[in-house]
Amino acid sequence: MRAERGRPARARRRHAIAATLLAAALAACSDGGGAAPLAPTGPTRVAITFAARVNGEPFACGRTYPGLGLGSIDWEPSDLRVYVSNLRLVRDDGSEQPVELDQDGATQLEGIALLDFEDATARCSLVGTPETNVHVRGQVSAGTYEGVRFTLGVPFERNHGDASVAPPPLDASAMFWTWNTGYRFLVLDGVIPSGAGTSVHVGSTRCEGDGRGNVTGCDYPNRAEIALDGFDASRDAIVLDAGVLMSRSDLATNSPGTSGGCQGSPTDPDCEGPFALLGLPFGGIAAPAQEVFRVGPGLAEPPPAAPVPTATPAATPTPGPGGAWTWNLPAGFPRPIVPADNPMSEVKVQLGRHLFYDVRLSRNGTQSCASCHRQELAFSDGAVTSRGSTGELTPRNSPSLANAAYNPTLTWMNPLLATLEQQAMVPLFGETPVELGFGGREEELVARIAGDSMYRSMFDLAFPGEVEPVSVGNVVKAIGSFERTLVSGNSPYDRWLAGEEGALSASAKRGKDLFFSELLECRHCHGGLNFASALAHDGSPREKTPFENNGLYDVGGTGAYPAPNVGLYEFTGDLRDMGRMKPPTLRNVALTAPYMHDGSIATLEEVIDHYARGGRRIASGPDAGDGALSPYKSTFITGFPLSAQAKADLVEFLRSLTDAGFTTDPRFADPFVAPPGGSTP
Predict the structure, then answer these.
(1) Whole-angstrom distance, CA of residue 439 vs CA of residue 441
(2) C-alpha–C-alpha distance, residues 414 and 483, integer Å
């Protein structure tokens, strides 16, 4: 590739990073008689610094950048993350020396590193993480170097595994597309003043595989090879300029019939500019020289004096009091996150199971948690919206609790409820609306439970050594422990993945291919192990849940949603968050009708019609409007053509996500009802 602009390669001074990176290790040596210094011969520690810019200005979440793209539009970032691999330094003779990366158990694995420039503030809070990373650290053979080379992307052999059980940094759900496609190598997202989102996502596309991770190749690998001359690791940084990447894009207009922004396809007109600027081929045109990455002086920081420790093995389950807990998880499922102050134990889970089904947890003795979360319906309730113990309707549909332990957040709209224990407090003590009705009457609830000798004994065993084991805090801890065990992962689709070819019908297999295709874009909201928008598990950083607007409403043509179901807007006050809801799991989706946050769509067929149209049109009434035209709709909700047979196939695939064993498993059943031929636990 060409030399960096304005800095001719042969006229540029050569950089001896081996003499500058570690003064202690590489100080000049002398024989005391005036002889020339000895050149170091061992490996040299090195830190390669990356810096993000927007038209030369530092990248920062919460900052608005003027004049971007072809229309010179104001733009605010919401994400910027990049995978790089195969990093090499270039000697003065042109030979390349690989950098051996530290295996730090967080941002680097084998030869792969994840660079994360967002910090989960402002717009970046929707899908980001507070942790950032702008360095690639490791060691390289001592020598004189004058350039750097690396690959933008994940190597093929690592690109098509199961991200839900992959070690860091390959467990970042925001960076994963599907089993077939693999990872997003580069994610650059943002928002323009109209509220519309912008996206540049680059990764391998049109990959072939059998759905079991056996991918044989991709028509478009889309791995950009970056070569920069005149690079001194002790002094310079590699600058990624997001403004340059978007400079040939119309940020306000998306090409008709395509996904929002550039989604990695060399046949999508919205990818033509970003691909050319990254040095990737597009539409049969040879790759030009890349322009997005450059050398920036004065930005490096010294490497650590010693390698970062390698990743520690995954921790073994922590037994709680009252009997060690052993997870009995479906094949391939990682352990859920367990709060440090609420370790699992058998007696605590059984206590939580009893409390979950006990109508005495409602003040008037008419309802339990199970009233709105029925096992036969995958722990949903089949109602449009739930009804509390006093008859008051809640504003939203009761979501399934299947695999709730893997959810980074736990309700349709609230980004703050991140644990099952926190969520259990809402139905118990909430007053708007009233559900179980103990708001302001916590002592009454505790006295009721403590008056039962069975419960006193169970609380003593579950929380030994506590002076008052029956408490509100321990009630929700026990319920959370039981709900954490509600793991579903043995559907026909799971059995087919495991090699049971007959588990899926021909129709379901066709539907599977449609579901994971770029045409339908289902994976954006329903990907990964849990067919949901995000996944949190033990050993993985808890990523924030993406909230999306799927075009369900456009009241009065303003983009508004009917109150009180205004989505994330309720918490941010930002109109761009109007109608943004958490995409739920699709596991057992055939059992959890009606659908959407307000239960306003009755069948799976109608759900598919909604997405095929690109939004719902309501012709009359107080909610009239065309959701397909909403200014706040997520950019990938664009609509798609679908034949009657294709729709039937897609429904068949969705039905194949039903885990019949989960809905009848006695471990999750009502302990106050004797099973056939048995006795009450």
Answers:
(1) 5
(2) 19
Instruction: Please check the confidence at residue 307 and state whether its pLDDT lies above 90.
Output: no
Q: Is 630 exposed, middle or buried (0-12, 13-18, 19+ CB in 10 A)?
A: buried
Rounded CA gap, 620 and 600, in Å? 15
In whole angstroms, what is the distance from residue 43 CA to residue 631 CA?
55
Tokens read off for 372? 């709105």
pLDDT per residue as tens digits for the range 415-440: 888 899 999 999 999 998 999 999 98
Best-predicted range by mean pLDDT among 279-283, 310-314, 645-649? 645-649
As a whole number, mean pLDDT of residues 502-523 equals 92
Residue 43: band (very low, low, confident or very high) from pLDDT cuts 50, 70, 90: confident
Residue 539 confidence (pLDDT): 78
Model pTM score = 0.70
Which residues, 6+ apart, have CB-to-CB distance to 677 below 8 Å?
none
pLDDT band for position 162 (50/70/90)?
A: low
Q: What is the largest CA-CA distance in the chain?
A: 96
Read off the tokens for 66. Answer: 């003027």
Structure tokens at 150: 């690396």
Residues 260 and 638 sit within 8 Å (Cβ to Cβ): yes
d(C-alpha 533, C-alpha 458), whole Å: 37
SS3 290: coil
Place of tokens 């690959």: 151
The span from the CA of 667 to the CA of 506, in Å, is 33
Cα separation, 115 vs 460, whole angstroms: 48
Strand residue runs (E) in 236-341: 236-241, 293-297
Residue 391 has pLDDT above 70, yes or no: yes
Cβ atoms < 10 Å from Cβ of 30: 11
The three-class DSSP label of residue 427 is: helix
> Exposed/middle/buried for 379, CB within 10 Å: 0-12, 13-18, 19+?
buried
pLDDT of 621 above 80: yes
The three-point CA angle 612-618-623 to 5° equals 130
Q: What's the first-to-final CA gap in the chain, in angstroms? A: 72
What gap in Å lies between CA 204 and CA 178, rounded to an integer?
A: 11
Alpha carbons 288 and 283: distance in angstroms, whole number: 13
Instruction: Give residue 156's region: left, alpha or beta (phi > 0; psi -120 to 50).
Output: alpha
Contact between 583 and 569 (Cβ < 8 Å): no
**Across the strands, what pairs with 140?**
44
Q: Which is it for strands 236-241 and 43-54: parallel, antiparallel or unpaired?
A: parallel
Q: Both tokens of residue 233?
A: 């690791």
Average pLDDT on 460-485 reads 96
Calculate the alpha carbon distances from 238 to 42, 241, 295 in Å: 25, 10, 5
Query: What's the whole-number mean pLDDT along residues 585-597?
Result: 98
Residues 208 and 238: their CA atoms lie apart, in Å, by: 34
> Cis ω on the peptide bond leading into residue 395 (within 30° of 0)?
no
Separation of alpha carbons 31 and 176, rounded Å: 56
Q: What average pLDDT does the chain have?
A: 86
Q: What type of residue is 638?
A: T
Domains in the chain, start-ordered, CATH in brackets?
17-297 (no CATH), 346-488 (1.10.760.10), 492-655 (1.10.760.10)
How confident is the model over 216-237, as pLDDT tens digits?
888 889 999 999 999 998 889 9
Helix then strand count (H, E) for the chain reads: 14, 20
Inter-residue long-range contacts of 530-533, CB under 8 Å, 24+ positions, other chains counted: 530/164, 530/403, 530/406, 530/407, 530/585, 530/587, 531/585, 531/586, 531/587, 531/589, 531/657, 532/403, 532/406, 532/407, 532/583, 532/584, 532/585, 532/586, 533/582, 533/583
Look at residue 248 and give its three-state secondary structure. Answer: coil
